[in-house]
Amino acid sequence: MRTAYSVETVRTAERELMARLPDGALMQRAAAGLAAACADLVGRVYGSRVVLLVGSGDNGGDALYAGARLARRGAGVTAVLLAPERTHAGGLAALRRAGGGVAPSRQADGIPAFLRAAADLIDRADLVLDGIVGIGAKGPLRPDAAPLAALASRARAAVVAVDLPSGVDPDTGEVDGEAIRADLTVTFGTHKPGLLVDPGREYAGSVRLVDIGLSLPGEAAVEALQHADVARLLPVPGAESDKYRRGVVGIAAGSARYPGAAVLAVSGALRGGAGAVRYVGPAADAVIARFPETLVSDRGPRKAGRVQAWVVGPGAGDDASAVAEVLAADVPVLIDADGLRLADVDAVRGRDAPTLMTPHAGEAAALLGVAREEVERARLDSVRELAGRYGATVLLKGSTTLVAGPGGGAAAAVRVNATGTSWLATAGSGDVLSGLTGSLLAAGLSAVDAGSVGAYLHGLAGRLAADGAPVGAHDVAAALPLAWRDVVRG
Length: 490
Ligand SMILES: NC(=O)C1=CN([C@@H]2O[C@H](COP(=O)(O)OP(=O)(O)OC[C@H]3O[C@@H](n4cnc5c(N)ncnc54)[C@H](O)[C@@H]3O)[C@@H](O)[C@H]2O)[C@@H](O)CC1
Ligand SMILES: Nc1ncnc2c1ncn2[C@@H]1O[C@H](COP(=O)(O)OP(=O)(O)O)[C@@H](O)[C@H]1O
Ligand SMILES: [K+]
What we know:
By secondary structure, the protein is of the alpha/beta class. The protein has two domains: 2-220, YjeF N-terminal domain (Rossmann fold), CATH 3.40.50; 227-489, UDP-N-acetylmuramoyl-L-alanine:D-glutamate ligase (3-Layer(aba) Sandwich), CATH 3.40.1190. Helices cover 43% and strands 15% of the residues. It has helices at residues 7-19, 25-42, 58-72, 89-97, 106-109, 111-124, 146-154, 193-196, 200-204, 227-233, 259-269, 284-290, 320-328, 338-342, 345-349, 361-368, 372-377, 379-390, 429-442, 447-466, 473-478, 480-489; strands at residues 2-4, 49-54, 76-81, 101-102, 127-131, 158-162, 184-188, 206-210, 222-224, 248-252, 276-280, 295-297, 309-312, 333-335, 355-357, 393-396, 401-404, 414-417. The strands form two sheets. The chain has an eleven-stranded mixed beta sheet with strand order 1-9-18-17-16-15-14-13-10-11-12, sandwiched between helices. α4 (89-97) links the parallel β3 and β4. The longest helix is centred in the last third of the chain and has 20 residues, at 447-466. The two termini are 14 Å apart.
């Protein structure tokens, strides 16, 4: 499991560790790891041109000490200081001792000369280190720092963010205004939520974690399943299993207008671990024609026969009665697409069995009564808010998919999944996800596990199916067994 902790938790862990170590030891660990990562990235340190963007906190201190290490190995290192009088004094002295230089400053030389010099240096650099701000960030980048982020983001040089890209909110991944676009982020002690959740994740580039010895007890703020975690959660039939013991998933989906949604949801469900798929709705002929193994019924969810979990909503049009019948069932229910619009909030809140809602940003926005952009800007807050309002587990789809448990509060970890690819942004791929995830629910996974395992397999299948080329949703479904095998084989 990859875990990310809130700034507050990181600060507490740092204080405890610092109390047991000599002054400055932690920063030296951070700077050593940072310099090593930079050296790996540029390949040849000797003769390389390195620019340090240095803010007034310890994040700047890390950049200065790492710069000193690179200067000792023969790099030409220049620091651009945002606040010379408040720069980390030890770091700056170390850089000077190692032969590094300092660019003209805003305070002494005026803003135009400062920006011209910074632009020149960044233009000619092989490597830019972003030490503007780290976990001490408050609000959007300030007006003096924002132009540096813009210059670095356009640079031909490799850009390494120190701890996290400046301009990305450490706890949420929100980006308000300018932010550093890094090729690599070297983060210390633990991942930060903002590195795993979009839009921050996209700004971070690849992320390297440097162990500085922090011990982080208690619940993470954000966690991301890895192959081994998913492998442990996948349902595997035992010797005594039969199709009913493996679980039956009911799919109430599709309409005369959208029969394909039913077919795609079933295509995902058949590959999700349930022993049988029961389809209920007006697209039975289309479903059977494509998947003859499906059990079909035209009697509505209540009379369709026993299932261990329901999926309701994909392509369902305005069939509110099917949604109400499914919500009345005492088994786990996944609500997707049209079902989200038709589900009564009190009926969802009143359920005893687990409920999993799977909106994309547009659907989440409609449920929350805000604009879609607001959900995309603040994905963590949005998923927690929805989970709290409905008392349900919520899976918010997108480039990073988030899964929040029914508590909705900040205390419980939100799962994040980034196995996907933007090729998954294709009509019907959400239907495949809902069938797959419903199947995992029927096989006995909890709502949070089913959602996060479903998103993981679906993203991986998308990647395997696409392999750099456009694919249809049915290709994603067909690649699910490949993804499953890939996970099991490790
Ligand atoms: N505390 C520790 O034990 C360690 C801290 N480390 C580094 O220290 C960093 C945290 O240091 P600090 O607590 O000094 O905080 P930061 O250096 O992250 O930020 C604080 C400084 O940035 C300025 N600032 C805040 N918001 C800003 C904004 N929106 N735009 C521009 N400037 C802004 C503040 O005025 C303040 O001077 C970590 O991110 C990490 O890089 C590492 O050295 C590892 C050890
Ligand atoms: N840019 C992206 N990167 C990765 N995955 C994406 C991206 N855009 C969409 N997806 C994934 O593709 C699927 C699309 O689902 P959805 O929006 O419900 O589509 P549809 O309604 O057409 O089935 C979701 O699993 C979502 O997470
Ligand atoms: K930074």
